[in-house]
Amino acid sequence: MSEPTLAGAPAPDPDENRRQVLYWRLLARLFDPEEQAGLESASLAVIEDIGLPAALLDPGASVDSVVQRHPELAPEFDGLMTPEPDEDGARDRAAEVRRAALASKVLLNVFANPPGTVTAEQLSRWQSDAGWLERALGCRPGELRGGRPAGAGRGVSPTGTGHGGPTPDLGRLIPEIGPELGSIEAGLVRRMRLREVLADPALASRLTPSMSLIEQLLRDKDNLSGVALANAKALIRRYVDEVTEVLRTQVEKATVGDIDRSVPPKRVFRNLDLDRTIWKNLTNWDPEQERLYVDRLYYRHTSRKTTPQRLIVVVDQSGSMVDSMVNCTILASIFAGLPKVDVHLIAYDTQALDLTPWAHDPFETLLRTKLGGGTDGTVAMTLAQPKIAEPRNTVVVWISDFYEWRTDELFESMAAIHRSGAKFIPVGSVTSSGRGSVNPWFREKFKDLGTPVISGHIKKLVHELKTFLT
């Protein structure tokens, strides 16, 4: 307990004062780019007093550069804003000051961006700093910004301060933090002379693929040529490969049917059941010669009971659905690689495009999309309905915000698919952040139909499809 002052009030806590100084500086720099001399000098004194480098206060220094010069700090950024509560409920005020200094650095680098044209180097630095913020929130770099599906993060305290109680669930903060980071990144990409950067291989090599960058590349691809187009395709390919690897891991956890013992096992060496063969032939053991004579070989059953399934994915490719378009194109290609799954892919805005011939290759599929325009799902329905040959073995996944032009006509045709026996899955968003807007009229209609809209993380859609297709 603090010693009482002459006036009877508790004495000021020096660590609490240091923490307040750092956060006041953080707020001042976020809302006013001009330095406040008093706060700057006081913050420098705090930083030096607790043994941290002054580079944490340098707005021109990235977190990467600070960590390179002071590698001992790197572990402190991981889970920085997800402190474990003290068992006895007490606050470690000295640790809070240190967290405040490190958290302020990350937050300022991510959220305090100067106006004007953005260079490739500035974008690369911001992406790196945003990755450090995501690590501080207990996530993997790129996870909150969308496009790199991953598991949910841990609990997080927005200020990085532990008060001895449970921290809020990160899942409730992602819908706000993730899209905000994505919005900032998209703004930086728009302010960058992207065509000039792509035309210079040295500058293009500094870019890190992200959803915001891929969206801009897909929108502008028809205006690119030569070196710029080649660099744009390379970035899209890198991004597709990264996301594919994550999604494939989720999909491959599914089983592919029960063992079918009605089908004789293939008599090949790789299927030989050595343990069972030895056990069944033990009666042929010759103790004098110390040899086991094998009368019969036994093989493992590998054939599985599977029913051919048809997966029809319909994706709204209007401007508001780019994240879903990219994720679902990749997801469709993964399911297209599974045995006994016949995948069809349709993209639409006011016109529909059957992308089935390229469904196995998300890179080629994305190059054929044209983002933007209005939304008329009836044109996509015209292509989708004839593909439903055996309703009981068909699943139709429809991804859209469902802000449609001909609402009644489209919903009636969707209800007809459901009544036919096919599984109809309406999806409002398939992003990593889990935020998406869905037309409330359609949401209620689907609920009444018994096919509620799936909204949220792409893992929900993966789970639904695995349940039906396996």
TrEMBL record:
SUPFAM superfamilies with a match to the protein in the record: vWA-like (SSF53300)
Pfam families to which the protein is assigned, alphabetical: VWA_CoxE (PF05762)
Record's compositionally biased regions (Low complexity): 155-169
Region entry Disordered, spans: 143-169
InterPro entries in the record: Uncharacterised_CoxE (IPR008912), vWFA_dom_sf (IPR036465)
Gene3D superfamilies in the cross-refs: von Willebrand factor, type A domain
Name listed for the protein in its UniProt record: VWA containing CoxE family protein
Organism: Streptomyces griseoflavus Tu4000
Lineage summary: Bacteria, Bacillati, Actinomycetota, Actinomycetes, Kitasatosporales
